[in-house]
Design goal:
The structure is a single chain. With 653 residues, the chain is of the alpha/beta class. The chain folds into two domains: 39-47 and 59-375, ABC transporter type 1, transmembrane domain (ABC transporter transmembrane region fold, Up-down Bundle); 399-638, P-loop containing nucleotide triphosphate hydrolases (Rossmann fold, 3-Layer(aba) Sandwich). It is built from 20 helices and twelve strands. It has helices spanning 62-69, 77-109, 115-162, 166-171, 174-191, 193-216, 218-227, 229-265, 267-272, 276-328, 334-375, 439-446, 469-475, 490-495, 503-512, 516-521, 539-553, 569-583, 618-624, 627-635; strands at 399-406, 416-423, 428-433, 454-459, 462-463, 476-479, 488-489, 529-530, 557-561, 587-591, 603-608, 611-616. It has a six-stranded mixed β-sheet with strand order 6-9-10-3-11-12, with helices on both faces. Strands 2-1-4-5 form a four-stranded antiparallel β-sheet, covered by helices on one side. A two-stranded antiparallel ribbon has the order 7-8. The chain binds adenosine-5'-triphosphate and magnesium ion. The site of magnesium ion has 4 residues, from helix 12.
């Protein structure tokens, strides 16, 4: 802690009432320890609406937002209290230093006596060392606590997001979600931990310094405080603008991240269709909006700061004016006046911080609101309550849809209506139908991504809503329509099917999936890193890796969504054998347009606009001459002999 004479700059008339080492109140990247984080004073104004119509100003009062996030400080509250104690102790030390300074000017300097110097100087040094120790401890603790809060909040949001239904992700741009999970989380920290510490610091500093000011010279102190409300008035005046601007900044950050993220994901489309120019335009548009916003945000904060400087100058002038009068009346010396003016350098920052506190909180609320939109999104399904859940049992694999009706949240028309189907343990049921008929929706209900609106889905006779989710998903394996690949090695990609699987298990699964050979041919074999966007493997190879993963999982029920679609005839033929090995002994629901495997199916169901229109075996349905026969006829040319060939039997080969 240092003390420096801070007086109004005679050249400009402006007071620079900042202590050395104290960051400017508008530092963009201040972290937890500053009395008043001002992230949002620089918030830009965005004019572009973006693709998501978000309200331009926070709707949520800061108080309510704070109340939503405060519970997350549980476990760290004693540390927050300790930080506040440190902050208060530091303010006390500073006050003591100010009083000692005035003591020094009054006695040692004015009387020119060296003997009057030593005692206050020693006390001052002691107070300074004490203040430095407390400041260091408090600031370190504050950073630690703030980061812990951020970590806890991030874990909480991340955990919540994992439970959200598929349609949530298709309705939000990924980049925007990313921004919410990163930037907005930081904003909330500013509101909670730093917000509380900042408030305590500003309030206690103001009170201590005011008391000191009144003990020093009550008349000058009064003059100081007469003009102080101007700081609050200025802050109020700006609060509305900063509110909306902060929200716009968060939205702009999300839009930029989205564009970058999307164009990276679509780089193949960009190159294949010569869309480089269009992509660059898109980025330029968003970046332009962001820049305009940044600039006008910065301009606004600069305006605010300059206004506050002018107000401070006014206050200083008022004090000097009063002082000049007092000196002319012989009631005060110039030394006393200078000492008081120096003191103002300490008094004003906390006063103006108090004025800005509301601004910071409202601005942080913008981030809080965006995060609450994510946190308040309901998972489509929940684990059954402990009392309502069935006990784990040995699953045989009977699957049953009982007059199931389903409508996607927000959709106008039902996707499934009155669908009933059953598959006994080990049976192979094939579901086919036109695109958009609702086939994949059946798989989503079976994995319980959603609950049906009407009717029941049952596993071994137990309605899915009574089955614990992890138990259900341990026993039903989904091979989704789009091959899901982790950004990891091939080994990890297969092993993630069953936690704790040994290398031996992984290789065996790969061998069964006819993947071992091509994996070994890769320079790094099983340790080759693959990536969903830039996989150096073909569609059929990726599909066989997915099959190996499902093999390893070894669940009694298997749901295959278009396992051969997207593969050419040769590649499709290559996955058929591994698929058959995978299906052997398991209840299999295969959703497909590809009717090569249809003759093997115990039952074929034809879906049309969410309704079951035909059920039967391949031969029965062909003989019926209805929808299935038409579908089959339309594929006749492309049907290969892989599936219906009598020499290829279902079962391990
Ligand atoms: N998240 C969603 N929100 C609203 N509607 C949806 C959603 N997902 C799918 N749908 C609608 O539900 C209907 C059935 O979709 P589904 O994915 O089940 O079709 P599908 O039979 O699997 O088609 P395809 O053969 O092309 O894969 C479609 O009309 C689709 O537009
Ligand atoms: Mg589908």
């Amino acid at each position: 802690m240092q003390l420096r004479l801070v007086v109004a700059d005679p050249a400009t008339g402006r007071g620079r009432h900042r202590r050395p080492g104290r960051p400017r109140p508008y530092g963009r990247h201040q972290r937890a320890v500053q009395p008043l984080p001002e992230e949002y004073a620089y918030a830009p104004v965005i004019t572009e609406g973006g693709e998501e119509a978000e309200p331009t100003a926070p709707q949520l009062p800061a108080r309510l937002a704070f109340r939503r996030f405060w519970p997350l400080t549980k476990g760290d509250r004693r540390w927050i209290v300790l930080i506040c104690v440190c902050v208060i102790a530091a303010a006390l030390a500073e006050t003591a230093a100010i009083l000692l300074f005035s003591d020094l000017t009054d006695n040692a300097l004015r009387q020119g006596s060296l003997s009057a110097f030593w005692s206050p100087a020693a006390q001052w040094l002691a107070v300074a060392v004490l203040g430095a120790g407390v400041g260091y401890a408090g600031n370190s603790l504050a950073v630690w606590t703030a980061e812990r809060f951020v970590m806890r909040l991030r874990a909480r949001v991340f955990g919540h997001v994992q439970d959200l239904p598929p349609h949530f992700f298709s309705r939000h741009r990924q980049g925007d979600l990313l921004e919410r999970l990163t930037g907005d989380i930081d904003a909330i920290e500013q509101m909670v931990v730093s917000g509380v510490v900042g408030t305590v610091s500003a309030i206690f500093s103001t009170v201590f310094f005011s008391v000191a000011a009144f003990t020093l010279r009550w008349d000058l102190a009064l003059a100081t405080f007469v003009l102080a409300p101007l700081f609050w008035l200025a802050a109020r005046r700006f609060s509305g603008r900063i509110k909306s601007v902060a929200r716009e900044e968060r939205v702009a950050d999300g839009a930029i991240t989205s564009v970058v993220e999307e164009s990276l994901a679509n780089v193949v489309l960009t190159q294949a269709y010569n869309r480089k120019g269009a992509e660059e335009d898109r980025l330029r548009r968003e970046a332009g909006a962001w820049m305009r916003a940044s600039v006008s945000g910065a301009r606004m904060s600069e305006l605010y700061e300059q206004l506050v400087e002018v107000i401070e100058t006014l206050c200083v002038l008022a004090v000097i004016g009063l002082g000049a009068w007092e000196i002319s009346q012989g009631r005060m010396t110039i030394g006393q006046l200078l000492a008081f003016a120096a003191f103002l350098g300490y008094l004003y920052p906390p006063i103006r911080n108090l004025g800005q506190l509301g601004l910071t909180l409202t601005a942080a609320t913008a981030g809080a609101e965006r995060l609450l939109e994510v946190l308040d999104a309901e998972p489509a399904v929940r684990d059954p309550a402990p009392g309502a859940a069935v006990q784990p049992w040995r699953v045989h694999g009977t699957v049953e849809f009982d007059r199931v009706g389903f409508r996607y949240p927000g959709a106008e028309r039902p996707t499934l209506a009155g669908v009933s189907l059953a598959a006994r343990p080990g049976e192979f049921v094939l579901i086919t139908g036109a695109s958009g008929a609702g086939k994949s929706t059946v798989s989503k209900l079976l994995l319980r991504f959603y609950d049906p609106g009407e009717g029941y889905v049952r596993l071994d006779g137990v309605p899915l809503h009574a089955v614990p989710l992890t138990f259900l998903r341990d026993h039903v394996t989904l091979l989704p329509q789009e091959t899901l690949i982790l950004h990891d090695t091939i080994r990890e990609n297969i092993a993630c099917g069953r936690p704790g699987a040994s290398d031996h298990d992984v290789v065996r699964a790969a061998r069964d999936a006819a993947a071992d050979e091509f994996i070994r041919a890769l320079p790094q074999g099983y340790d080759t890193r693959i990536d969903p966007h830039t996989a150096q493997l073909s569609g059929g190879q990726l599909q066989r890796i997915a099959i190996a993963r499902a093999m390893l999982r070894n669940a009694p029920v298997l749901v295959l969504d278009e396992p051969t679609t997207g593969l050419d005839a040769l590649a499709a033929r290559r996955v058929v054998r591994p698929l058959r090995r995978l299906m052997a002994g398991r209840t299999t629901i295969m959703i497909t347009h590809d009717l090569n495997l249809a003759p093997d199916a115990d039952r074929i169901l034809v879906l049309d606009h969410g309704r079951l229109v035909e059920t039967g075996t391949h031969h029965e349905l062909l003989a019926l001459g209805g929808a299935y026969a038409r579908l089959h006829g339309s594929q006749n040319g492309s049907l290969t002999d892989t599936g219906s060939h009598p020499t290829v039997q279902l079962g391990p080969s």
